[in-house]
Write a structure and sequence with these properties.
26% strand; single chain; nine-stranded mixed β-sheet; five-stranded antiparallel β-sheet; alpha/beta; 491 residues
Length: 491
Amino acid sequence: MNERLFALIDRTDEHPAVIAPEDSISFADLHEAVERLAGQLAGAGVGPGDTVALSLPNGIEIVLAFLAIVRAGAAAAPLNPGYTAPEFHAYLEDLRPRAMLFLGDTAAPARGVCGELGIAALDLSSGSARELSLPAPAAAIAEPDPEAVALLLHTSGTTSRPKIVPLRQRNLAHSTRTIAAHYGLGRDDVSICVMPLFHVHGLLASTLASLHAGATVVARQRFSPRTFWEDVVRHGGTWYSAVPTLHQLLVARAESEPPPRHGLRFARSCSSALPISLHAALEETLDVPVVEAYGMTEASHQMCSNPLPPGERRPGSVGLATGVEAAVLDDDWRPVAPGGTGEVAVRGYSVIDGYRDNPEANGASFRDGWFRTGDSGRMTADGYVTLNGRIKELINRGGEKISPHEVEDALTSHPAVAEAVAYAMPDDRYGEQVAAAVVLRAEATPDELAKHCAARLAAFKVPVAIALLDAIPKGPTGKVQRRLLSEQVTE
């Protein structure tokens, strides 16, 4: 079985591989461009074991640049183009790359940082994506080692300082094959990529799994409901994957403008909990199955997913283990009985061996091949996993552990609530109390929402404070920084 990532993309004809609004590239041209760029990287002094940072917007260029880096046997370190100079400095100092790729004015603040840190700045040519190149003579390159680190990413840092996750060629290859097989992706599929390609959701699920299947990827720099439907109709989109925030925008648009006739066969939700009410609304809006999945950077993205029909998809559950072994463990690393609550853990070929240069975190999170995810959850006897939330984000009210997801499902079941986030609020008597922030689509008062929750939740789970916001603060991939929300709402 081939464990080299680029070798998994074996389609080489003129069929479109990646489509952007103003350009496209075929599989044949993709192979030629990646081999050329990989050779030029080698000619610029980049070799196996090196790290190359890049900070490019969604589109053909970032796909080619990433694949060229891993084809050269180096590790790609994609960064958010929206970072400020201090943010670039922190990440680049942590990553210690040999070089960083630039394209025009994208990520301009990083140029000065590269000069300060002695990182070589390599400029990609602009113009047609199939002609993308570097100003360096091509050098010979060997096939990369499956054990070579191919992707370096930081954890989202929702509960601690971000850690560096080293994903090997074999990790990514296994995850790519798993995702493509689980959803039955084939050469007639068209993935509408709406997630940023500097994180594993967009990179692995929407893009690499599709290219491995010989399918087409449509990638725009930014998501909007209008351009999403334009791309679905124009390019024959058959599926997409997104965080609940983006699904919610599509549902909201459908309230005033119904979706056009389309060929989508399913939608996927991952990277954040999908409220049961939104799941139902999205299926009604799209008239296709919606499957919730569960992924983490440390496992090369997907760990669990609900199956497509005729398999059973269970709203509120992240589904069955895919490509890994999953378990729910107690504090002593022992499996709990089916239905019992503990910490979700996984092991398998897509899971990393450990964080880079972080023995303390490795000791806490890795043992005997198992990776403890930090998520509280439970598993049924037939293998379906349900998450309660991040263990460090569970609300501890006088010893009662409350899942924020349960409170959020109660709030979003109210017809006036578009989005809801529950979080812990400090309390002198109980230590913590339940609080929530909501975004409304219609008129409702905090008292009305609290009464709605009281009819669905035990009294100790009902939010004692509900803030009405215009928008829920989120990170670049749509994840809520829940631990910071209390401070932000108070301010």
